[in-house]
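Recap from last week: sequence in, structure out.
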Amino acid sequence: MSPLPAGYRLVDVPEDRKDEFLEVDRLAFAFDSNAETDAIVPITFAWDRAQAVEDPDGGLAAVHASYAHDMPVPGTSIACSGLTWVGARPDQRRRGLLTAMIDSHFARSLDRGEPVSALFAAEHTIYGRYGYGSAADDVRVKIGRGAALRDVPGSEELTVTLATADVALHSALVDEVHRAAGAGRPGWITRDTEVWRTRVLVDPPAWREGAEPLRIATVRDASGSARAFALFRRKENWAEGGPAGIVKVREAVALDAASTHRLWSFLLDLDLTATVEGPMLPVDDSLLLLLENPRAVVPKVNDNLWVRLLDLPVALAGRRYAAPVDVVLDVTDTRLPANAGRWRLTTGTRQDDGAYPAEVTRTDDPADLRLDVRELGAAYLGGRSLAALARAGLVAEVTPGALQPAAAAFLWSVAPMCNYVW
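Predicted structure tokens:
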């Protein structure tokens, strides 16, 4: 555990110190709130997972919390500690407070039996030095109104209804479709508490920035079953040439190509609008392939989940692999020495779904690949290629010919992504 400056100490944060905790967060991220918004937007983490650094005067200097997630990984799921709400007061920076909190987070997560940690990085340069690897991307798009989509059989039989989003009316529907759409996608964390399901749909006026209340478009089949939804709002805008409103989509989730086509056909043809700004989407989302003219879209690829292996053998054995492999990994890990050294990863018999389970054991055998735990985290969800990391000089092939089989085994057929709502 990294030492703190004299007089500072790590403390658990009970809910009765909520206001102090939130004030540090506001100072760290430079935003403001009000009583009305705070009353509407729930805190999504559990207070028994909140911790802070207390300064010598008893005030909170830095804070963090975590979520207990069952995170999908290739072929299965694993217990994951989702690090969140990490921040320090601007006048308390450069004192080692973050490092102490990260070390505490690692230790507490391991004590709870969580072999993996994941987070969204507010700044790209921070978490790599703690062994987190950028493991997934998402893509955001700006699309002009009327963009044509390729025909998809079954789309015309689906219907769309529009309503103002309401927690009581729509929480169950949103959760059901979200769960079904993300089944089998690594990183797709479901909303397993009522607080999370509420948070997805809250709509404080302060968040609207002059736009309309949050709306929900629901795509249904002939039986009335929901097949897709979009949470969005329109903002009025008038240009010299006429109406130029903006559609801002908070979340858009669909179960298949037909429902994707029907949902986006609706969003791309709303009156008095000119541009649709999409939410985070997987890089292999069907929308991107259905656009007749993809050059007319303005895409932006962002880093999504960052992953940290806390208990390396449990984490690597806790996912499945796309191809057979027998490889010795020589791993460096400066923060968690128990992960460092040589590990043999050997896949077993192919399962009915085509994936391979694996065993991971300590070994004195010569290394085939040499890499840091950060690169293992990057490859863990199957969205980063070990071969690409090697070309970048981040993975070393010690045994000639060992890289390609390992790279093929770690990759996965579905792009990882976490469709996250703070």
